[in-house]
């Protein structure tokens, strides 16, 4: 049988004193150094802020002077009867121009953009075997009348379909009335 004996008792272990006079002195010195650095930083920062404040106050004084001068000029101009009369006349002109603009916007004057898009769409829709002989754009392009000649009757719906893919108001027109005449183009028979 074996028996263990512990001869390393707690009283034989080395003791460490975490708080000693030397350590307290070292901590106080470190703390004083940190406080000195922070104090120097705050003094420098405060000096910078004071110089910025002084610059801002100088700028404010300049801007205040400019504002006062502008207010004096405005007071002189507002008391000038010629300027007051001119301002009143221009305000009246502006009101009349706005009334005229509102009237023109509300009035249907027909085609105000011209007929160039109509012509472009008619030329884009044409093809060999179909000829426009006459066209009328009435009431500013609200009513359209087309007259022409086609070699085959099937070309007419193709022409109308091409018009519907254009850019002018012709694309929305519904060509419901159609009048056709057959022209005999066969050679004369010899008797």
List strands and helices in order, with pairings.
Blueprint: H1 21-78, H2 81-106, H3 116-125, E1 130-138, E2 143-150, H4 155-164
Antiparallel strand pairs: 1-2
Describe this structure in words.
- This protein is about 55% helix and about 10% strand.
- Among the domains are: about 20-80; about 115-170.
- The chain contains four helices and two strands; from the N terminus they run αααββα.
- It has helices spanning about 20-80, 80-105, 115-125, 155-165, and strands at about 130-140, 145-150.
- Strands 1-2 form a two-stranded antiparallel ribbon.
- With about 190 residues, it is mainly α.
- The model has no long low-confidence stretch (mean pLDDT about 80).
- Helix 3 (about 115-125) packs across helix 4.
Summarize the structure.
This protein has 4 helices and 2 strands.
Main features:
191 residues; mainly alpha; 54% helix; elongated
Provide the gyration radius in Å: 50 Å
The pLDDT mean sits at 82
Number of helices: 4
What letter string, H or E per element, gives the SSE order? Answer: HHHEEH
% residues in beta strands: 5-15%
Reading side by side through the largest sheet, how are the strands ordered?
1-2
Instruction: Tell me about the largest β-sheet.
Output: 2 strands, antiparallel
**Which spans of ≥5 residues are poorly predicted at pLDDT below 50?**
none
Number of strands: 2
């Amino acid at each position: 049988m074996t028996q263990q004996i512990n001869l390393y008792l707690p009283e034989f272990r080395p003791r460490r004193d975490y708080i000693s006079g030397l350590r307290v002195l070292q901590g106080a010195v470190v703390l004083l150094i940190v406080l000195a650095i922070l104090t120097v930083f705050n003094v420098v920062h405060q000096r910078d802020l004071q110089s910025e404040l002084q610059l801002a106050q100088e700028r404010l004084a300049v801007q205040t002077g400019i504002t006062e001068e502008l207010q004096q000029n405005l007071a002189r101009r507002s008391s000038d009867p010629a300027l007051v009369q001119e301002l009143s006349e221009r305000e009246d002109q502006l009101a009349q121009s706005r009334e005229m603009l509102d009237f023109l916007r509300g009035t249907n004057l027909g085609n105000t953009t011209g007929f160039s898009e109509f012509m472009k769409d008619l030329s884009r829709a044409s093809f060999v075997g179909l000829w426009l002989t006459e066209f009328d754009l009435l009431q500013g392009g609200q009513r359209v009348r087309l007259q022409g000649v086609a070699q085959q009757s099937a070309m007419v719906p193709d022409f109308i379909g091409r018009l519907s893919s254009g850019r002018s108001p012709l694309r929305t027109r519904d060509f419901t009335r159609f009048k056709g005449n057959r022209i005999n183009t066969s050679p004369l028979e010899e008797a």
